[in-house]
Amino acid sequence: MHSRKPFYILVALLFIAGIASSIYRSVEHNIPFFPGEQVQSWAIDAKVSFNGQGQPAEVDFALPNDPAFEVLVENASSPGYGLNINQTEDQRRAVWSIRQASGQQSLYYRVTLVPTGKTKIKAGEELPSAKPYSWPVTELSAAEQIISEVWERSASNQSFAQQLMAKINDVNQSQNMSLLLASNTPTELFVRMLNTKEIPARIVNGLVLEDQRRRQQLDQMVQVYHDGYWKLFDVNNNIQGREDNVVLWESKGNSVLDVIGGTNSQVNFSMLQDTRPALSTSIDMMMNAQDDWDFSLYQLPIEEQSLFKGILLIPIGVLVVVFLRVIIGIKTSGTFMPVLIALAFIQTTLLTGLIGFLLIVAFGLMIRSYLSSLNLLLISRISAVIIVVIFIIGFFTLISFKLGLSEGLTITFFPMIILAWTIERMSILWEEEGPKHVFVSGGGSLFVATIAYLAMNNSLVQHWVFNFLGIHLVLLSVVLVMGQYTGYRLTELKRFKPLAGEK
Q1: Torsions phi, psi of 492, nearest 5?
Q2: Whole-structure pTM value
Q3: How many CA atoms lie within 13 A of 148 on its CB side?
Q4: What one-character DSSP code corresponds to residue 128?
Q5: Lowest mean pLDDT among 6-20, 30-44, 270-284, 290-304
Q6: How far is CA 94 from CA 89, 195, 236, in A?
Q7: No. of H helices and E strands in the chain?
């Protein structure tokens, strides 16, 4: 007797691989588990303006590269300017250039951002260094006293930064703090004090997102290194931590805007919040990523996608057929004929499909009974039945069109070869077993096809089988397990009902 242990290991591996693949796809590519989910997006316009001096001009503008937001769509409007986007591993910048710029100049950049939830920013493998700040003689003593006082009340880089920010924003400031703030902005003072204790810190520029806001400016914030991550501090507003509505427009401590050949340069931001379907947003993000190792059906042309949406429903119908035949014990005409009929029902709707199927089979059986009296060879008889089925479908389609019944036109979606073989098998069964067995197998086929249709036509099922291909491994594992079932079917239990009443 062979051990079933390898079989159960295989089934478990298939099941785990299918579930893990689906979870990975949801987490990595933000594919929603449920259809119809919505996500928030932000449309941001940046307007760069400066005065040209009648000479060549070059504008170097930082672009967002924040892991907390994914760039969905971006474009620039700059008539007469050349545009080049320079991208490195951790920085993106737009460079506009023109041979001559005179008078007021305006450049526009528009981007649509989608939150990713990845608000933690991990530092690089190389430990960042901090260059100690050289305090002026007039500020040195005051700075050392404050730093020493705060240092004693802290235990780490983060706690030191927390205590220091609270000290800077204290309404009852000491004379030393007032002296330092007289010649330093709160943000600059915060960074300089941190660097004095050789704590890596840098000024970054963040944009606070608010719906329907115009002419907004970037806010200076500070990133402090702590345990491998950059912690964000908004010193001006006395806020520690990253809020969901803050996008770090420039997060490497570099300038946001550099203009050569112009004066009075500035940048203003306008923003608008929008709601988008989560699935289409994820698809657009995957298309933008262009990862060669990312296998997605959305990379196929639309025609092939439509084809696969139907093909990938077949395993669901197969699962229904296996369960109803192996576990329940329902008899059908043909093993997987109900699955193909269910696919036709998806195109025709259930009621129209049932009526069309019954009419075609009924007329086909009448024609088949006449063909049997001719004693034709099997191949000729089947060929004749196929031709007759085509005529029947064409006849009912024309009648439906004449009567204005548009639903009847969809009857052409029925698989003609399968219908011909169904009629042939039912005719033989009628001759050998009688009409009762024909009605039992035919009724069973329609019942199984109806259940399969309800499962395959479910929007949640259609969403899963197309967007999470790992689900098919789960279906395969379930089918394999049911294939090991050798017990009684539920419909067979009635045979033993009299025994249950005996004492």
Answers
A1: -85, -10
A2: 0.71
A3: 7
A4: P
A5: 290-304
A6: 15, 31, 29
A7: 16, 13
Would you state the structure tokens that stand for residue 88, as one six-digit string? 């490195």
Which one-letter DSSP state was computed for residue 91? -
**Phi, psi of 105, rounded to the nearest 5 degrees:** -120, 140
Q: How many residues does the structure list for the chain?
A: 503
Helices 175-183 & 157-168 angle (0-180, nearest 10):
90
As a three-state string, the secondary structure of 131-176 is: CCCCCCHHHHHHHHHHHHHHHHCCCCHHHHHHHHHHHHCCCCCCHH
Sequence-ordered list of residues with C-beta below 8 angstroms from that of 356, at least 6 positions apart, any chain: 348, 396, 408, 411, 414
- Concatenated DSSP letters for 437-470? HHHHHHHHHHHHHHHHHHHHT-HHHHHHHHH-TT
Q: What distance in Å separates the CA atoms of residue 296 and residue 286, rounded to the nearest whole number? A: 9
Cα–Cα distance between 148 and 298 in angstroms, integer? 59
325 - beta bridge partners?
none
Cβ pair 259, 50 in contact under 8 A: yes
Which pair of structure tokens corresponds to residue 248? Answer: 């770090």
* H helix or E strand, kind and range, residue 469: none
- The pLDDT, as a whole number, for residue 28 is 78
pLDDT tens for 369-383 read 887 777 777 778 778
pLDDT digits (tens, 9 = 90+) for 70-87: 888 888 888 888 888 888
pLDDT in tens, 467-484: 898 999 999 999 999 888
